[in-house]
Amino acid sequence: MYRRIMLAVDGSTPAALALKEAIKLGKALSCEVHLVHVIDDAGAADDVGYFAPAAANQKLLDAGRDYLQRAAAELATAGVAHSERLIEEPFAPGGIAITIDQAAREASVDIIVMGTHGRRGVRRLLMGSVAEGVLRLSRVPVLLVQGEDDGPAFSLRRSSQA
Ligand code: AMP
After folding, report:
1. Which domains does the chain have, with CATH numbers?
2. 15-20 long-range CB contacts below 8 Å, 24 or more apart?
3. Candidates 61, 109, 113, 114: which one to mutate for ligand 1, based on the most atoms within 8 Å of Cβ?
4. DSSP 40
5. Mind listing the pLDDT tens digit for each residue in 106-149?
6. pTM of the predicted model over 0.85
7. How far is the CA of 80 from the centre of ligand 1 (A)?
């Protein structure tokens, strides 16, 4: 059975729903949940670009740590063993899916749990799907939990306008 589950977190509603499933699996199987967040360098360029890349990077790092800490706190409350990894830049430029798959291999996980927004049509063409990318690359099963796309809990754009 599964001994180690990877949960990919990005602060979104689907990832929060995926956390609930990881907690169920972790409790039922008494296995460890390995949390991973990849700093999305493409997001920094979109939001502030040349203007303040260092500040943008710090905000992304802070947000990433926050996503991991919040998920870790829920796992601790549920009594599920866990570990965390913040990957400060994708292993390939813009390659979040490649990085999640590589991290899963390095951590020797037995299954990957993720959210997905279930985008359709043009949005999917433009934005792609991290979950679909992982599904194509992964050597272990991938559990996808679909949720509404209401945007990330953290936004550089929103916080810089505040
Ligand atoms: P999709 O909606 O198909 O693009 O997949 C979104 C899911 O991919 C999220 O719910 C997370 O599980 C995962 N994900 C997306 N971005 C990241 C990231 N930067 N770090 C870790 N996991 C991520």
Report:
1. 4-144 (3.40.50.620)
2. 15/67, 15/114, 15/115, 16/115, 16/147, 17/115, 17/145, 17/146, 17/147, 18/113, 18/114, 18/115, 18/143, 18/144, 18/145, 19/71, 19/74, 19/75, 20/145
3. 114
4. -
5. 999 999 999 999 777 776 677 679 999 999 999 999 999 999 76
6. yes
7. 22
